[in-house]
């Protein structure tokens, strides 16, 4: 169970100074999480209570409108709602009634708060309570805020999961709860690995369907699979569950350390651990090595986006031979990303929050080989001659655990590879 | 409160962004929370722009509310001026900032910035994207344009093209060429490519070409009233409309109408025998009012289609579209609800849809071919090749675009001849659509119930139902519908093979 390189200093970047700037944030708001959450929770509907902007954001961020009638929508506030001419609570109940009438397949309904609904202080908690009472037991109604004034991009998933936790039934069972929405195929791989380690009583939040046997209590230990789940961590703590801190399962090393932390909690025999992880570790290393050829020695710059920046910087620097120039994150929660920070060698600028103009200045000055940024910045930076990787793909693509480690490295090497392939000038 | 699944238009501040992004030397300071920056990707990803939109977002957060959001706006405004040194600025609020009532316009005015600042009042909870663009251009023009001498030679302004517009980039080239043929040069094209300084010179043109009423009409009306510059009412999309447009310009300028049609292919392509199969194709049209009106004329007069329904999503055009629908003897559908459009299409069962990307999805679901004629746009609507909608080349492009999704004439006949062939069965679809070939699964004949299909009070007898299945899939919907109407009109309760063929003879064209 040896990791390939010891940290450069005992505590890595854990105590490194953090650059904090305030200005324009070039990030999505928490509503965006609905796009993957509604695919994960197959009987849930996400009803945003917001403005035309919210509806437009969801539509634009989703990129293409794949579904004729998706399981999300926006109750668009109109002038009459704001002027108090219409009782917003009644209006909302009417829209929900209409929706549930049409969509009998819906078992969970999330009322999702937005910037406008927060500003006018629309009480969605009360609405959820009233609606829950009315539609129970067939439909459970919960609420959370995905508003941009409170949440950044992936924090929407955190807020959603944190809203589900207080409603979970109590259990005394000794169990492992894995928290974070993963693609089903990745989740199944993870459950298979844990099973082979002899850890059988494993639950996943969010569950695929509402009628799961998910419960929580003081004998529950939990591991996070996504580095943006600080609110869920706190909510589980309030239910008496205990967190297993670990680096995130990105890459061979990250996955091994994550699994090892869980294995140690459950007293798994070390020989068994090595036996179970040996083959997938070797596969992951081999797959990473291919992409790493292109990444080795290259410099990477992270704009804040998905909160995955610190664990990914750890992966790219330790497993792919890259050098991190700047690692920006919307916010840094050391209780969550501490183990990754410890492994990240000192050197890069750590930045929290954003003034996008100043950060662009730093990026242009640094001239990194690869810039990880949002969709609004990618093409403009490419046009300036910088190779980019759009961060949103890291959220939409299966990248966790051993079998995806090569794909993860590939996401970063592909933009560089494409530049090598293209020959757009005349022959000499 | 209204539940919306997909929307045809964004909020009005996105319309303002379309104007700002189209222009040069203008900067937009938008009082908005974190997350509203998503709108940048519309321009950088969908339109593949190689620059960020010239927009600064103040990015206020919950903790700023009630304390210093106003200061945040001022700081952002000053920083934006210092960094970008624009010739002019526009300032405004997004939907959330509208609620906190910081009055960006008033604040910016008090700051005494060394450039003109145009305040925007865009009611987010009442209006939408097109209004936002129209109003923004109008306010910019009203603030900056001044009365001035006409140019010595005859010139025109092109008004209305914006960033993220449906083929605006190429329409500008095409309309510029149309004007050049008559000896008219372009004074200013706005907002696309114009600087605030250019806007001050709008009055030098002899007249305005209103390319897109959705985004340019308010500015044109103001220039007509205040600067005495007339504007064109014809949108030159289609052969007939392009000719009318040339005539209208001749009337405005006193020049001889001149139009070089040597590259115009639509009329011949439409007359050539392969196009016979286009005759009477039942089409449904939906999009913005301007493009729908133009497409309706082309569909009927230049392609020989039958328009079975039409509508638009922008209420500003409702009156025009209702009048147009009357002329076509159909009912207009004015709605922004995608599900209503889907229901109407399902009900009308057209053979083709001319719509937006939304209708393309509806078409996919219902198995009806669709050609896109209007915004809202998709990355596919920004092709690398020259692909205008207006003028001579626009007509050629439209012919190709509309015919492409249909089964080609000759192919339709072949499909008919070989309809029982294993490779030409119904599920195979048209070969040029690129689907993987699906072999026909031979299933034993199911035991036919006596009453195979019922519609209202009309019953399909098993034989007739079986015969109906032999009709090619792309006309079967129409055959079924026509037969049922035929039967219902005659009080026939049961449809037999004879009824089917009597109906066919009745509707023969």
Question: Can you describe this structure?
Answer:
The complex is a heterodimer of chains A (428) and B (509). With 428 residues, chain A is an alpha/beta fold. Chain A has 17 helices and 14 strands. Chain A has helices spanning 34-40, 52-61, 79-82, 88-102, 115-119, 124-135, 155-164, 184-196, 230-238, 251-265, 270-295, 309-319, 334-343, 356-366, 375-383, 392-396, 402-421; strands at residues 18-22, 44-50, 72-76, 108-113, 140-145, 175-179, 202-205, 220-224, 242-243, 299-302, 323-329, 349-354, 370-373, 388-390. In chain A, strands 1-12-11-10-13-14 form a 6-stranded parallel beta sheet, with helices on both faces. Chain A has a 4-stranded parallel beta sheet with strand order 3-2-4-5, with helices on both faces. A 4-stranded parallel beta sheet of chain A has the order 7-6-8-9, sandwiched between helices. The radius of gyration of chain A is 22 Å and the shape is globular. The mean pLDDT of chain A is 93. Chain B has 4 domains: 12-128, Nitrogenase molybdenum iron protein domain (Rossmann fold, 3-Layer(aba) Sandwich); 145-253, Nitrogenase molybdenum iron protein domain (Rossmann fold, 3-Layer(aba) Sandwich); 266-414, Rossmann fold (3-Layer(aba) Sandwich); 441-507, Proto-chlorophyllide reductase 57 kD subunit B (Helicase, Ruva Protein, domain 3, Orthogonal Bundle), CATH 1.10.8.550. Chain B contains 20 helices and 16 strands. Residues 431-453 of chain B have low confidence and may be disordered. Chains A and B meet through helix 2, strand 3, helix 3, helix 4 and helix 5 of A and strand 1, helix 2, helix 3, helix 4 and helix 15 of B. Strand 3 of chain A pairs antiparallel with strand 1 of chain B.
Explain the layout of strands and helices.
The complex is a heterodimer of chains A (428) and B (509).
Chain A: E1 18-22, H1 34-40, E2 44-50, H2 52-61, E3 72-76, H3 79-82, H4 88-102, E4 108-113, H5 115-119, H6 124-135, E5 140-145, H7 155-164, E6 175-179, H8 184-196, E7 202-205, E8 220-224, H9 230-238, E9 242-243, H10 251-265, H11 270-295, E10 299-302, H12 309-319, E11 323-329, H13 334-343, E12 349-354, H14 356-366, E13 370-373, H15 375-383, E14 388-390, H16 392-396, H17 402-421
Parallel strand pairs in A: 1-12, 2-3, 2-4, 4-5, 6-7, 6-8, 8-9, 10-11, 10-13, 11-12, 13-14
Helix pairs in contact in A: 7-9, 10-11, 10-17, 11-17, 12-13
Chain B: E1 2-4, H1 12-22, E2 26-31, H2 39-46, E3 55-57, H3 69-84, E4 88-93, H4 95-100, H5 104-110, E5 117-119, H6 129-144, E6 155-159, H7 168-181, E7 185-190, H8 196-200, E8 207-210, H9 213-227, H10 239-253, H11 266-271, E9 282-287, H12 289-302, E10 306-312, H13 318-327, E11 332-334, H14 338-348, E12 352-355, H15 357-366, E13 370-372, H16 391-403, H17 409-417, E14 451-455, E15 458-461, H18 462-470, H19 473-489, E16 494-495, H20 497-506
Parallel strand pairs in B: 2-3, 2-4, 4-5, 6-7, 6-8, 9-10, 9-12, 10-11, 12-13, 15-16
Antiparallel strand pairs in B: 14-15
Helix pairs in contact in B: 1-6, 6-9, 7-16, 14-15, 18-20, 19-20
């Amino acid at each position: 169970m040896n990791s390939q390189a010891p940290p450069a200093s005992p505590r890595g970047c854990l105590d490194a100074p953090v650059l904090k700037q305030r200005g324009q944030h070039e990030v999505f708001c928490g509503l965006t999480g609905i796009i993957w959450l509604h695919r994960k929770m197959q009987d849930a509907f996400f009803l945003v209570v917001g403005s035309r902007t919210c509806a437009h954001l969801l539509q634009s961020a989703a990129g293409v409108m794949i579904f004729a009638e998706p399981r999300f929508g926006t109750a668009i506030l109109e002038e009459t709602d704001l002027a108090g001419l219409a009782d917003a609570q009644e209006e909302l109940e009417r829209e929900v009634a209409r929706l549930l009438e049409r969509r009998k397949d819906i078992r969970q309904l999330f009322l999702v708060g937005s910037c406008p609904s927060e500003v006018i202080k629309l009480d969605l908690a009360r609405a959820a309570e009233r609606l829950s009472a009315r539609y129970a037991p067939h439909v459970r109604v919960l609420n959370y805020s995905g508003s941009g004034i409170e949440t950044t991009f992936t924090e929407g998933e955190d807020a959603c999961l944190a809203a589900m936790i207080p409603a979970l039934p109590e259990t005394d069972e000794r169990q492992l709860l894995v928290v974070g929405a993963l693609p089903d195929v990745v989740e199944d791989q993870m459950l298979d690995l844990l099973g082979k380690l002899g850890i059988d009583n494993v639950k996943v939040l969010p569950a695929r369907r509402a009628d799961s046997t998910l419960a929580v209590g003081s004998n529950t230990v939990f591991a996070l699979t996504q580095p943006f789940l600080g609110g869920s961590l706190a909510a589980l703590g309030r239910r008496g569950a205990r967190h297993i801190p670990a680096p995130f399962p990105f890459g061979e090393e990250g996955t091994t350390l994550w699994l090892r932390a869980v294995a140690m909690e459950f007293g798994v025999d070390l020989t068994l651990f090595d036996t179970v992880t040996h083959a997938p570790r070797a596969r992951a290393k081999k797959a990473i090595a291919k992409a790493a050829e292109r990444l080795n020695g290259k410099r990477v710059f992270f704009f804040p986006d998905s909160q995955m920046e610190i664990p990914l910087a750890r992966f790219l620097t330790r497993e792919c031979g890259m050098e991190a120039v700047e690692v920006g994150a919307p916010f840094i929660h050391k209780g969550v990303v501490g183990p990754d920070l410890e492994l990240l060698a000192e050197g890069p600028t750590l930045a929290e929050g954003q003034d996008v103009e100043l950060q662009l200045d730093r990026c242009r000055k640094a001239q990194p080989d690869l810039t990880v940024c949002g969709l609004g910045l990618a093409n403009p930076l490419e046009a300036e001659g910088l190779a980019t990787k759009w961060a949103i793909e890291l959220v939409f693509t299966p990248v966790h655990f051993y079998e995806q480690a090569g794909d993860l490295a590939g996401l970063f090497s592909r933009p560089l590879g494409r530049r090598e392939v293209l020959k757009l000038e005349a022959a000499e | 409160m209204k539940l919306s699944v997909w929307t045809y238009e964004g909020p009005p501040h996105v319309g303002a962004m379309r104007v700002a992004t189209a222009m040069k030397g203008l900067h937009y300071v938008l009082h908005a929370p974190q997350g509203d920056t998503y709108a940048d990707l519309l321009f950088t990803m969908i339109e593949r722009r190689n620059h960020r939109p010239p927009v600064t977002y103040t990015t206020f957060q919950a903790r700023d509310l009630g304390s210093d959001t106003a200061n945040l706006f001022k700081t952002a405004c000053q920083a934006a001026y210092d960094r970008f040194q624009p010739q002019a600025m526009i300032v405004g609020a997004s939907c959330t900032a509208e609620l906190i009532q910081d009055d960006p316009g008033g604040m910016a005015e008090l700051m005494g910035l060394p450039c003109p600042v145009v305040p925007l009042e865009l009611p987010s909870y009442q209006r939408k994207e097109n209004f936002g663009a129209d109003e923004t251009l109008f306010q910019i023009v009203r603030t900056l344009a001044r009365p001035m001498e006409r140019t010595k030679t005859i010139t025109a302004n092109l008004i209305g093209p914006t960033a993220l517009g449906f083929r605006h980039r190429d329409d500008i080239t095409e309309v510029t060429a149309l004007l050049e043929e008559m000896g008219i040069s372009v004074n200013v094209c706005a907002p696309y490519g114009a600087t605030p300084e250019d806007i001050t010179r709008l009055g030098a043109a002899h007249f305005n070409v209103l390319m897109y009423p959705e985004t340019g009409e308010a500015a044109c009306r103001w220039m007509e009233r205040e600067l005495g510059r007339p504007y064109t009412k014809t949108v030159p999309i289609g052969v007939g409309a392009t000719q009318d447009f040339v005539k209208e310009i001749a009337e405005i300028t006193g020049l001889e109408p001149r139009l070089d049609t040597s590259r115009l292919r639509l009329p011949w392509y439409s007359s050539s025998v392969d196009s016979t199969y286009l005759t009477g194709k039942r089409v449904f049209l939906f999009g913005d009012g301007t493009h729908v009106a133009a497409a309706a004329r082309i569909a009927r007069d230049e392609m020989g289609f039958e328009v079975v329904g039409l509508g638009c999503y922008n209420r500003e055009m409702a009156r025009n579209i209702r009048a147009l629908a009357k002329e076509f003897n159909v009912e207009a559908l004015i709605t922004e609800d995608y599900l209503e459009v889907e229901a109407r299409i399902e009900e009308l069962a057209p053979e083709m849809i001319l719509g937006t990307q939304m209708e393309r999805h509806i078409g996919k679901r219902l198995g009806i071919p669709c050609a896109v004629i209007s915004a809202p746009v998709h990355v596919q609507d920004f092709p690398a090749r020259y692909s205008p909608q207006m003028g001579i080349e626009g007509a050629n492009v439209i012919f190709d675009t509309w015919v492409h999704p249909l089964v080609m004439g000759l192919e339709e006949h072949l499909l008919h001849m070989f309809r029982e062939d294993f490779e030409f069965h119904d599920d195979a679809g048209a070969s040029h659509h690129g689907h993987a070939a699906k072999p026909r699964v031979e299933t034993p004949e199911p035991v036919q119930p006596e009453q195979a299909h019922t519609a209202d009070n009309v019953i399909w007898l098993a034989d007739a139902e079986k015969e109906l299945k032999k009709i090619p899939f792309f006309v079967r919907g129409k055959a079924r519908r026509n037969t049922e109407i035929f039967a219902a009109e005659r009080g026939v309760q049961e449809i037999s093979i004879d009824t089917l063929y009597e109906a066919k003879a009745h509707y023969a064209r």
